[in-house]
Amino acid sequence: MSRQSNRATDSKKMNSELFTLTYGALVTQLCKDYENDEEVNKQLDKMGYNIGVRLIEDFLARSSVGRCHDFRETADVIAKVAFKMYLGITPSVTNWSPAGDEFSLILESNPLVDFVELPDNHSNLVYSSLLCGVLRGALEMVQMAVDVRFAQDTLRGDSVTEIRMKFIKRIEENLPAGDE
Amino acid sequence: MEDGRMRVKCNFSGDQKFLENGRCVSKLESMGFRVGQGLIERFTKDTPRFKDELDVMKFICKDFWTSVFKKQIDNLRTNHQGIYVLQDNKFRLLTHLSAGKQYLEHAPKFLAFTCGLVRGALSNLGVKSIVTAEVSVMPACKFQVMIQKM
Description:
The complex is a heterodimer of chains A (180) and B (150). Chain A is 42% helix and 16% strand. Chain A has helices at 16-34, 37-63, 71-87, 129-140, and strands spanning 92-94, 102-107, 144-152, 161-170. In chain A, a hairpin with an 8-residue loop joins strand 3 (144-152) and strand 4 (161-170). Chain A is globular, with a radius of gyration of 17 Å. Residues 1-13 of chain B have low confidence and may be disordered.
């Protein structure tokens, strides 16, 4: 039986359906385990953090991006390089605060939520919370403390998905890469 | 009677740790099952009907394994009586863990999901099974599929 696909080629990429379905299975299992949307959000964020503190090394090794000089540059690298590399999408960077310490990432599409619908009894679930943790963990490893949250979410009825990122402070000492 | 339970050859110290680990491994297997069902639907959308059970297993070993793990199963053996052994000499989820016997006791955690994946895929192809995994030297491992007569 002949296969028309070219799935075997790029070893750095994974099948997007596998990725989406696996994430879905993960969230579903967490919902069963915790029975409370807030707690699931927290767990996803925590898992994301643990991924982020390690992912940053992979990112730096594969992207050959140098040190960012300011938060604006950081935002661009996150949107144009990191998101592209790991999720195959390029969110746009907008809504800068006057002080330049806060911005939004607008995601037109989000591979994590393909085929996903939130049931009515999970209205407080922030399905893609993992991403917040990843960004927070990764940036912590490059000496930036940030606050990351979803301001809008297509799964909850908004027209776009918007991630709000706020710079808190520069981390002076080198913290060991701890697990939460 | 439970089917699809993940059975592994490992030693656990302490009953509590054993139970906890067993529960986690079991959950991972169920997650894999659901994903396997979904994936096989997508992968076989335009595929003609499979001739027989062996045809199904060959699909799992070649197309399915390639889509998921970027490589095929290295060796498929069967007794032609419903037992298949799928050998992967360089299992992608173990290569980062160890090249030998170090961390062997942790291998089940990395195999459970895939056992479920195979069981779920087969399930949606109309084949009921029990899937277990065995590792002795990483990153090689064997998945054993026991077809259940419906």
